[in-house]
Amino acid sequence: MADVVAGLSSPQKTLSPKYLYDARGSALFEEICRTPEYYPTRTETALLREIAADLSALIPKGAALIEFGSGASDKTAIVLDAAPQISTYVPIEISHDALDQAVARLAQRYPSLDFVPIAGDFTGELRLPESVRAKSAVGFFPGSTIGNLDPAEMQQFLLRTRVLLGEDSVLLVGADMLKDVPTLLAAYDDAAGVTAGFNRNLLERINRELGADFDIQAFRHEARWNAGLQRMEMHLVSLHDQHVTLGGMRFSFSQGESLHTENSHKFSTDSFDALAARSGWQIVQQWISPAPQFAMFALVPA
Ligand code: AVJ
Asked: What number is the average pLDDT over the span 77-91?
């Protein structure tokens, strides 16, 4: 609540993207992945299949695979199939339901794998149990989820992860690459309106959980390319002058004013290399798909 009030009180109204992923939001995101315009998920999945043997070669015998923001663990099986030397899977996920379901499903498919699920926010302070710390750590952070963080948060995440995973670790990070703006705009504003529904669901959630009175239909979804900051942005734009009440407070929106709901940063090999370098890591190997380009970076402590 305090978070939402603070976001609505700033000159550029903002809400944290993590609130997009309630049960309905997660289901809508999966639907986005099936739209023809949203290329990142299918491109990354195809890339992972393509490079699975290369990834396996980087993974030591008996390693623990630690996945950040694992969700439904959809891409994990590609790595587990290619690298049977992995002994332990450590999914870190804030949604208990998603975590339980993913573990139940994978436990059936990989009966000899050890599971050490951690329910928590991957951007927070994390600790691994001793049983996991004794093993070589391979971090897995697919989906270009890193692109949703601000540059300072990306750096903090990578610095903390370096401490968490230790000196002999490898960190595999999926990152969406810079590309022509029309492809990006279409990916974040699909013709069927699924992304628009995903964005508006945030207001429904705030109405339901925090007792606000957003008139959902009075906001339209907008995807914007921010060239200076090299990121896609999602906004909800007020169609007319209006007020919203929340927690006994009134927030006014003028016509055309936007509520900024998400950033998805896009990378070049140079920008990702610079991010790694200022965060205690270095790129040891990288794989980039054909256009629309999506990359997998293998990092080791610098
Ligand atoms: C799952 C956070 C990586 O930023 O591309 C998709 C979320 N937002 N369409 C992304 C999203 C709008 C997605 N991530």
From this structure: 98
- Looking only at the bridges linking them, the beta strands covering 88-93 and 118-119 are parallel
pLDDT tens-digit series, residues 57-75:
999 999 999 999 998 888 9
If DSSP codes are grouped into helix, strand and coil, which group holds residue 284? strand
Quote the CA–CA distance of 91 and 215 in Å, as a whole number: 37
Summarize the confidence of residues 194-215 as an average pLDDT: 97
Strand partners, 286: 297
Whether the CB of 262 sits within 6 Å of ligand 1 = yes
Is 71 close to ligand 1, i.e. is its CB under 6 Å away?
no
41: Cβ below 6 Å to ligand 1?
A: no
Query: Ligand 1 pocket, 188 CB below 6 A?
Result: yes
pLDDT digits (tens, 9 = 90+) for 287-297: 999 999 999 99
